[in-house]
Design brief:
By secondary structure, this protein is mostly helical. It has one domain: Transferase(Phosphotransferase), domain 1 (Orthogonal Bundle). It contains 6 helices and 2 strands. A two-stranded antiparallel ribbon has the order 1-2. The termini are close together. 21% of the residues are buried.
Length: 144
Amino acid sequence: MDGQFSAKSDVFSFGVILLEIISGKKNNSSHLSEKSQTLIRYAWQLWREGKELEFVDPVMMESSPTEDLTRCMHIGLLCVQEDRNDRPTMSSVVVLLGSGTVSLPQPRQPAFFVPKVIPINQSSLTNRSESGLTVSSVFSSALP
């Protein structure tokens, strides 16, 4: 959020990519309902409802055991937890992905992407509108 990168923000990014692979969907995409808004929120919602398999891309279901897919979703959710101190290290993630016998802790609420509206100073624009409307830019900001 503040432009600083760390090992924990790398783990967060890896978790997002893992969730994208499992679902076959991009994190910020129009396929998600307004209620979910982001892939992370959608994954968390289904996880809490016990509907993990609804999150998984049907193509993945054909080629991988469901236990492996739900485990990957579980690990992805561990990586995107809101509190960076609750996230595993990348070396732990490698162990968790490589071993089906290591038990996983329950994930806590993830850090959700929050749209941020930043007003643009009209005097800085070269082609100002004569209508008097305010111009804003929308940026997605992660909370890793």
